[in-house]
Amino acid sequence: MVSRKVTILGAGESGTGAALLAKSKGYDVFVSDFGTIKDSYKKELIDAGIAYEERKHSADIILESSLIIKSPGISEKVDIIKKAQARNIQFIDEIEFAAQYTTAKIIAITGTNGKTTTTLLTYHLLKEAGLNVGLAGNVGHSLAKQVIEDKYDYYVVEMSSFQLDGTAYFKPYIGVLLNITPDHMDRYDYKLTNYVDSKFQMVNNMTPDDHFIYYADNELIQEGVDKRSIRSLLHPLSLTESMSAYTANGEMVFEGGFKVAQGDTVLRGEHNAINMMAAISVARILGVNEVSIRQSLKTFKNAPHRMEYVATINDVDFVNDSKATNVDAVKYALDSFSTPLVWIAGGVDKGNDYSLVMESVNAKVKALVCLGKDNSKLRDAFHEQIINLLETDNIKDAVRSALGYAKAHDVVLLSPACASFDLFKNYEDRGDQFKQAVLELKQEFESNALKQ
Fold it and tell me: Which pathway is recorded for this entry (predicted)?
């Protein structure tokens, strides 16, 4: 008799969802988290009668499993995974597990940058058009948890490379690959080809009835397409060439002559033109009409910490782009503005090559505020290019100093290029503290103006 014992490693949104789905399908489920489990997730497990442990991995229990569903954040190099591999225990990702229990069409979206914006926009376009659609993956609720009831016809799923690594038979109806730039190299043995292969895991099982949307101007992506025998229909995007979708004269142009001016949308910058072309392409494949697309592009609200306008003080705009934790994301941000910038950057450097943004910095940045415990790499990279350079490890000082460097109609941009863990819990905490500091400074200026 085939064992029906499954262990879930990690009890966050993904792991808890996988546990609940496995329980509903008759598996003998055990949940193990090396950290602490949130009370809300504990309650869900207890209510479902699922055994769990926290702050440890009990190998004697876990290695009895026939299947392990692991959190994407757990590296394959950790001890319990190595032991499971030695016993030839299969381990997969929550999305791989969930996909086998739904007949809904899955739209899977990946890329080094822009995943969340594109996923949320795609979901918005489809939902506003009246399609019966769910939101899952790295944004929204666990796919596995939603599949228990399985009430949607479509799921828009944001997927990281780590999640794709845990797939074997996963096959989206529409796959979207936005870009590939070096990231998470420590998880991929510092080999870029391993990271590229991870992203292309998405297309391995796709058929001629499926669709693959990809950004053809990205060399790593185009090389990946050229050397693979991809069976699905191809929909290349470009900022320069006349492909399935491309930009020309400030417009996004699609097959059939459909055009959308970027100025008629709420997203700025070339990177968001790519994101929008991808989302619009999905909507068009699924039959959403042009009127609905145009209307929905105007009502979209992006997730926080992604080129998020915060406030204006003395005619200076403050923009929170705390999610920009690598140089490629910062380049997109810098290139989105035509006005002079005061740039706030810094944190835990992940091996950044700042030469990638040197041209943009030289053209647009008038001052750099380094926010971190160790700013040496930023300082060394830009001290010759930027006359005004200040170092601080305090977010309030950073905001006040940035305003001091700015003149009317300049922009203060928090776009760190680094991880946040030296001074903050995560990029969300960094962005929230930045917004709070800006709003407090705005209130101070307004109070002083009233006293005069």
Answer: Cell wall biogenesis; peptidoglycan biosynthesis
- What is the token pair recorded at 275? 């994101």
CATH 3.40.1190.10: which residues of the chain?
96-299
H or E stretch covering 440:
helix 427-451
User: How many alpha carbons lie under 13 Å from residue 95 in its C-beta half-sphere?
Assistant: 29
Distance CA 267, CA 248 (A): 17
Q: Rounded distance, CA 331 to CA 327, Å?
A: 6
Residues 276-311 have pLDDT tens digits of 999 999 999 999 999 999 999 999 988 899 889 899
Residue ranges, CATH 3.40.50.720, the chain:
5-92
Where are the domain boundaries for CATH 3.90.190.20 in the chain?
308-451
- CATH of region 308-451: 3.90.190.20
Domain 96-299, CATH: 3.40.1190.10
pLDDT band at 1 (very low <50, low <70, confident <90, very high): very low
269 annotated among ligand-binding-site residues: no
Residue 114 marked as a ligand binder: yes
Do 245 and 253 contact (CB within 8 A), yes or no? yes
Q: Are strands 251-254 and 259-261 parallel, antiparallel or unpaired?
A: antiparallel
16 in a known ligand binding site? no
Distance CA 279, CA 70 (A): 29
CATH architecture of the domain formed by 5-92: 3-Layer(aba) Sandwich (3.40)
Structure tokens belonging to residue 117: 């914006």
Whether residue 265 is annotated as binding a ligand: the answer is no
Neighbour tally for 221: CB within 10 Å: 22
What tokens appear for 357 in the block?
């943004």
Q: Is 331 labelled as part of a ligand binding site?
A: no
| Residue 103 buriedness (CB in 10 A; 0-12 / 13-18 / 19+) | exposed
- Model confidence over 156-188: pLDDT tens digits? 999 999 999 999 999 999 999 999 987 777 778
